[in-house]
Design goal:
elongated; two-stranded antiparallel ribbon; 24% strand; 251 residues; 9 helices; 7-stranded mixed β-sheet
Length: 251
């Protein structure tokens, strides 16, 4: 692995080759091991009452439910994300985060940023890393998300998202008076309406190795949990939607 070619490239061009070149191993875990919870956190009441219990907005209204604008938009964008392009997945993902209270300014300042422009050094050159979504908590990036449409389901978002997490660690440390030696950045890849969850423990050793194009001695183990819902249906099915929302509220 130490002899693998390491080229200077943006996060959007990273592949599984780059993960091997920087000694990064992705390790699959089950739900309990990944989240460390036997019970999920509950989503906000409007999500629990409407979005989880009805297949679409028409079914909710037929049952006499009064839907707010945000939930109506979420239903609409979910359908668009299953058939549209990457921008449709971006829109749905943002609405999903907003509906699960990630965009609430209290008690902490949490913002959802789209196409957040990050920079990091890769093999001696400064390169871009631009996650489709970034959850910024009190000025520090907590979650990065890379999206793909179902039309591009064969395009692997995992290496790109991991590269974005490395860039997020650099960004966070530049904002600190005392940089941290390591930090766990949460990651999500969303293909259509099907997410995969990651925990990426980024160290200064890994950041330096990527910066100088070197093979680090220490292996980086990225933890991943893949919900067993399938890309074809994603969150369209109520059982899938319920489990994914509970998992999203648990990260």
């Amino acid at each position: 692995m130490a002899n693998l070619i390491r080229s200077s490239k943006p996060a959007s061009e990273w592949t599984q080759h780059d993960l091997m070149a920087y000694h990064i191993q992705v390790v699959e875990e089950d739900e309990l091991a990944f989240f460390g919870l036997e019970e999920h956190h509950l989503p906000p009441p409007e999500i629990a009452d409407n979005f989880i219990n009805f297949i679409n907005a028409a079914a909710a209204r037929a049952a006499g439910q009064q839907l707010g604008q945000s939930i109506s938009r979420l239903f609409h964008q979910m359908g668009r994300a299953m058939v549209g392009n990457e921008a449709a997945v971006d829109n749905f993902s943002r609405s999903l985060f907003e509906s699960t209270a990630y965009d609430n300014p209290t008690p902490q300042e949490v913002n959802i940023e789209v196409q957040y422009d990050l920079r990091f050094f890769v093999s001696g050159g400064i390169r871009s890393a631009r996650p489709n979504l970034a959850i910024v908590n009190n000025g520090f990036i907590r979650i990065v998300q890379e999206n793909k449409s179902l039309k591009r389901r064969n395009s692997d978002p995992e290496p790109q998202m991991i590269a974005q997490a490395i860039a997020a660690f650099r960004y966070n440390n530049l904002r600190r008076e005392e940089p941290l030696p390591h930090e766990t950045i949460l990651g999500i890849t969303m293909v259509g309406t099907t997410p995969t969850f990651y925990q990426i423990r980024v160290t200064t050793e890994l950041l330096d190795a990527v910066s100088y194009g070197q093979f680090p001695d220490e292996e980086t183990r990225v933890r991943v949990y893949t919900p067993a819902v399938g890309l074809a249906h994603g969150m369209l099915l109520l059982d899938n939607r319920s489990s994914i929302l509970f998992e999203l509220c648990s990260i």
